[in-house]
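so i finally got all the pieces together for this one. its three components total, 197 residues if u count the protein bits. some of the lines might not be protein, just check the labels. i wanna see the whole assembly predicted at once instead of chain by chain like last time, that was a mess tbh
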Amino acid sequence: MKVERSFYERETLIVAKDLLGCILVHKSKDGEISGRIVETEAYLGINDKAAHSYSGRHTPRMDPLYQKGGFAYIYQLHGYNYCFNVVTEKAEVPQAVLIRALEPLVGLELMTQHRSIDLSLGKLKNLTNGPSKLCQALDIDTSLNGIDLCEDELFITKGDDLKTQFMATPRININYAEEDKDKPWRFLIKGNEFVSH
DNA sequence: CCAACGATGGGT
DNA sequence: CCCATCGTTGGA
């Protein structure tokens, strides 16, 4: 079952941890594509030097960040890469969780098409083991920026009730974040082979 | 106007 | 490991 608004409107660190093991589903026009979330990063807003919204910065592209929890914040990186974030907390608290890696579940054929890679080498994990790879595989781009994850196109469901064994590490590639760059706000399922490098 | 940035992919 | 590539963003 789909997770509801109240799941997202909580402390970002809790949401980031609880998202591990959940299933991200995109009902795209070509068909359903989904994967289990195995790696996340929390971005804690105005007091987090790694966050877009650090010190209250607010440009048009980050409007969704300022929405209440449960909206999608999708931005294009420098170049052709997209990142998919889940907005957390109440409105005007610009915090989010970046989804960094998935374990592919449904729609493998579509994923291989979108990624234009060849699975015959058994490199299944190469489909979704990175924030931009998973966007490509699930056909997520900025046209979905600001979409409500409580609706039916792009949403998240509870995974198995297995208590996932997780661990926390510093976040990836945020050298600009000074004293915040070593905060252990990256979460991953221990030993999972689909975690990014 | 334009340098800078991160993720990826491929080469040595 | 190193390096090229992408082009939007945000600061001048």
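Chain A has one domain: 5-189.
The helical segments of chain A are 5-8, 12-18, 108-115, 131-137.
anyway lmk what u think
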